[in-house]
Amino acid sequence: MDAWHFTEMPYPYLPPQDSYTSDRVNMPNSVCDPKIAADLYNRYLDEHMLADDLGLNMMLNEHHQTPTCLDTAAPLAAAILARQTSKGRICILGNPIANRSNPIRIAEEMAMIDCISRGRLDCGFVRGVPYEVFGANSNPTQTLERLWEGIELVQLAWTSHDGPLNFEGRFWHRRAINIWPRPYQQPHPPIWITGSSDKANIRKVAREGYTFAMFLQPHEKVREMFDAFREASPDDNPNANLAYMPLVFTGDSEEEAAKGAEALTWYIKSKSEPQFRNPPGYVPVSFNVNALKGTYSGRTDAVRRQGLDYLKEQGVVIAGTPDQVIAQIRRFHELVGGFRHLLMMQQAGFLDHAATTKSMTLFAKEVYPAIRDLGATQSEAA
Amino acid sequence: MDAWHFTEMPYPHLPDNSTIPGIRVNLPNKHLDPKVAADLYNRYLDEHLLADELGLNCMLNEHHQTATCLDVAAPLSAAILARQTRNARICILGNPIANRANPIRIAEEMAMIDCISRGRLDCGFVRGVPYEVFGANSNPTMTLERLWEGIELVQLAWTSHDGPVNFEGRFWHKRTINIWPRPYQQPHPPIWITGSSDKENIKKTARHGFTFAMFLQPHEKVKEMFDAFRESSPDENPNLKLAYMPLVYTADTEAEAEEGAKQLSWYLHAKTEAQFRNPPGYVPVSFNVNALKGKYSGRTDAVRSQGMDYLREQGVLIYGTPDQVVQQIERLQNLLGGFRHLLMMQQAGFLSHERTVRSMTLFAKEVYPRVKHLGIDVPERKVA
Fold first, then answer.
1. Which of A50, A233, B174, B288 is the most buried (most CB within 10 A)?
2. What is this model's ipTM?
């Protein structure tokens, strides 16, 4: 099992939640004090460097127009970590390629980071969360199609070495493609894709040999999607290409762990206005029909309102003393049929530097050695 | 005078010039060894960290599809320097905004870097060099119009703090603009623009209060453009917003200086195929008419084919012992009428790490203290 440290790099100092309707999209940036933001950026990056020292990998993501995530351009943070760390792998999960205008620029940025890091980049692509369609001014329909065509174009740029060539796609026409530098890893950095409920998409991810990641979902749902991936994967050990993210807090005592876990749930409680959550065409018609019928599943208000015990039972939160964390990870691993990459949101909201680093260190020293063997072998046949 | 260290971060280990079509646009990337590239990136960044320790500032640029410049995304290296340096100002010169699709993303990247650096970013914008139109798949006409509209849009994003706003321009329509984070500096990082011969553009730069930079041009030309800037500037001291880049090499002896200077001039000999240098519409019709008439001026084959003495006389190349470098900088300041920012290409081509470090250190310790006072006095006003 590979363990990855993650924080969305939040700016948590917001007005009272009942005084505004949405964290995302339209929270004015007058709320952002740049001096505090500067301290937070440098603190979160320090925590990633600690992760590297502790033998963990590092995961980053990117969001726009939201205090839930200061990392508005993940390639910048990835470049910094590429330069400042030496052992751990660095995963951007992911470049919102369906909301960005030029996949060639993404290919160039990733190649540069891969070189600076000497081949430690894992490169994720996402279609972009629904509420960011508004700031991106992108078309909410066909995001999956743009995602896949964008990846095809990036791969072409990464793997073409004999001079300029062209790409005439449905969404992008590009001529004279000839990126400098080329990626460090051959044929290119490993590709990751996230998802939550589109099985056809998940199967496609498996067939392409990419790594598939899910976040903060109930274990039954994760099991279902991981099984879909395993069925479609041509690999001997599909579990090596599976990743899951819970919130993770490791404490000296149960009380300390409960406090830390509570602080982490800030992330699940962030608020976005309904009109931003479901732009027209972002989900298929059938999905909206189900929503109107009240059968909408997933990380919903229902999950958000539940208490810590429920979230722990579901595998969305993993928290406790080192022994308890080990037990919870083993349990979750078995429930979902095995997976290699444990992506850990170990910082969120107001969880401060001292508490974060203590949790990270306890995890690295007393939990990680006991779970490293998980996910390394073939899962049972379905 | 502020002194800035600069390298284009070249990958110089190429086959013989006669066996390749050119260095830019269509040189296949199979000629790049990623392990060598990794070493070069880290070396060039180390040299910037040294610049910071020595009391110099750091300048970066961005070029695409070329072995002359590995820094294909300047925001990445600027973010690294923002994080790793303490005192230096960091200038991206510049974001090729006329060749990029989304100025809002540039505004976000710059704001993030400004915060990480705690307000040490100088943000430059360029229209992009002609040969990069091809890789960018951008329209070679109206690049100046896109540059200015892009800057307007970025400034709007940087200075809007009350929630989402819209922008309906000629080239960009953006709605729901509400960037997080906001920039560290208020109202926003200083803006720089480069140029070489478009006086109208230079005057506009002056009126907007932006800093104007020129590179590697003969001093007469630079003086002419700097004067155009000064005439249009509303500031009491326009020289504070002027910048010039020569190649700079400082050595212990004249012989060593000449060796280093020769290696720096690799940059001037970078080969670009003719069809990439002048895409249709990139320059005005009158310019092309003059070119056909043989009047084309600027950094041309003529300049390139000159020897080092000529380049030194022209102020394109500054090299020598510390005393000689001091004297050449004083002369250049006099010839140009004074300018605050000395941007120094102190590394190019095959110039090794050892030589680069030695030159930078000699400059910082034995030249800079003697020229720091230059270029910042209020210039004499011409009698009307």
1. A233
2. 0.96
